[in-house]
Write a structure and sequence with these properties.
Helix content is 32%, strand content 19%. The strands form three sheets. It has an eight-stranded mixed β-sheet, sandwiched between helices. A hairpin with a 3-residue loop joins strand 9 and strand 10. It has twelve helices and 14 strands. It is globular, with a radius of gyration of 21 Å. Helix 5 packs across helix 12 and helix 9 packs antiparallel against helix 12. By secondary structure, it is of the alpha/beta class.
Length: 422
Amino acid sequence: MKGLSTTLVVAILGLASVSLALKARYDNYHVYQLQPSTVEQLEFIKKLDGSRDSYIFLDAVHYVNAKIHVVVAPHRVPDFVRSLEKHSIAYELLETNAQSQLEDDIVANPNRRTDDYSWEEYHELDDTYNWMRSLEAKYPGIVSTFVAGTTYEGRDILGVKVTYGPGKKGIFLEGGMHAREWIGPATSTYILNQLLTSTDREVRMIAESFDWYVVPHANPDGFVYTHTTDRLWRKTRTPYENDCYGADPNRNWGFHWNEVGASDSPCSDTYAGPYAFSEIETKSLSEYIATELKGKIYLYVSFHSYSQLLLFPYGHTSELPPNYNDLKRIFDAAVAAMSVRYGTKYTGGNIYDAIYPAAGASVDWAYGEQDVKYAFCYELRPSSLYIWVGFKLPAAQIIPTGEETMDSLMAMIKEAGITQFL
């Protein structure tokens, strides 16, 4: 690469180089939709996933006939296409310049006053943390912050507890497990704000009937990295072999860890880590839940994106959980409520069948190891149809997403503990 500029080298490698402190760009990166029709084709695609940093897989590689979106560095395009054709894999070119779809994120000014915090734009980590801490003074006796864990780079996993009285069941809301899914933290903080400010009678009833624990950013290092370096980053930032970084924190929890639906390659976006709870983020967050909140959590909800799905255990097997009938009844109520305000259609069910096999997720751990009776995961807007960069939901959709998800969450809670609201 002698004679090439630093910028060009970075573009060719497809890396957001930490050492060079440059932000990754995806100029002339191609986006392909693959659809393997045989097990052999699927296995070939799996080998590509994590094999080099110039391929970024936006979907898990699990199923024959599933649509798989891949971002490919320009210098790899000819070889990539030849390999697809050699293996007779059906593909469609969706985009020849991925950067054009990543230009218009609206990011808040980190120096703004905390009382100017809004849901009309996406926020950086410090901006959100400052707002969260400001709530203690604004709502004394109701709000307290807590540190639910730490990160590889030394950041706090900050949470907010909302309580209107002692002795109540707890609801735990978790967002931001995957770094690039910005709508998860935004929805978590929107709901937190509603719990404190809404004058709606039903919202007030639910807000004041439970103790709430809200952790908007379960993967702070990764989230910061999406702002500073690579908008499409998904994992933690722990260094591993072959200059690969991070494990998938939602494959790293110690419940049927790495049995299915994860990768052993450190470069893969679904890398399960070298062992369960290898990531300090999942280890410390799980220890907080298991010790400080043991026996207190009534409902565990995780916010991800995208696909417009509502999911419940299990991810490691198609075997249905013991209280499946209750989970399905609650699911039906929550999905119905999601569509009322804006007509947004959700589907879903148990993780393994509704989306794909995926062992080691937080909701499965909460359900299987902590005996949380009700555990759900929202895959928020958009749907997976006709869009490849669903992780970059426009900021104009933050409030509508928050509103309909609040509607759904209220229906979920009522259905789960309906006798409390008669």
